[in-house]
Amino acid sequence: MRLAFGLSLAMLVTSPVQVTSGFFRNHLYVVLGLAFLASLVVVGSSTGYVALVAAILSYGAAVCYLYQAIRSGRLVLMFIVFVTLVGVLLGTPQVVEVLNSLVDSQAWQALPFSPLACLLWICDGPSSGILLGVTLGAMLLGHWYLNTPTMQMAPLRRLLGCMVVALLLRMLVCGIGLGATCVESELPAPWFVVLRWTTGLAAPMVMTWMVERTLRIPNTQSATGILYVAAVTVFTGELMSQLLSVTTPYPL
After folding, report:
1. Sign of torsion over alpha carbons 204, 206, 209, 211
2. Which helix (H) or strand (E) holds 224?
3. Which of helix, strand or coil describes residue 43?
């Protein structure tokens, strides 16, 4: 759901005038597959129903782009972003605890999270999804230049800028969580924390700079190759973040 949310958001910020409709249509099918897979994993739960709605909307948006109904497609895409965001939040156990506590005052008093932890957990899933989605979206858009080499560079540069913003946002959320964890409790697996930051955050930031320099040549094929590596490092870093955060009161 994080990846579905981020990828749909990446398509939403991509210009439909400068990028052909086939890009949106094909990768809405990717969002459809991700959302449907999520609905099967948590079938019968509220998150599963939300994911199923996202899959249905993705098919509808793909049909809109198939028939060149660009405005309708972007409108449905906005709904997909919202629905997948809801799925991300409902798929985070800590956020569900916070939401339940808002309804029950006694549950709020027994909540094991501080206000700072509540805020960080709410931001954890969306910030992770944005980073995953814009990185994958940039890589897919770079690959799309092989199909349509006459497209302008502006859309890819915009997604690169979104990558930088997403990396900074993710560093902020996880940095505060890391600092708070070090103050309140023992840090689990310090070497893995270092690996998570170097692989999942520092390395992609360097690669965005490399891609930007490569686009000045311009060479979209080489830039896409770098973005492939960036996608792998981001996926690895976010997976390590989830594994490390299982036993900590804050996201790492």
Report:
1. negative
2. helix 220-244
3. coil
Angstrom CA distances, 190 to 88, 117, 177, 186, 252, stand at: 27, 20, 14, 10, 11
- What whole-number distance in Å separates Cα of residue 163 and Cα of residue 14? 13
Note the pTM of the prediction, 2 decimals. 0.92
- For 146-188, what is each residue's pLDDT tens digit? 888 888 899 999 999 999 999 999 999 999 999 988 888 888 7
What distance, in Å, lies between the first and last C-alpha atoms of the chain? Answer: 19
Q: Which amino acid is at 79?
A: F
**H helix intervals, 67-219:** 70-90, 93-103, 105-109, 115-147, 154-184, 190-197, 203-215
- Count other Cβ atoms within 10 Å, centred on residue 67: 11
Domain regions of the chain by residue span: 1-91, 105-252
Residue 57 corresponds to which tokens in the numbers above? 């909307």
How far out from the chain centre does Cα 28 lie? 15
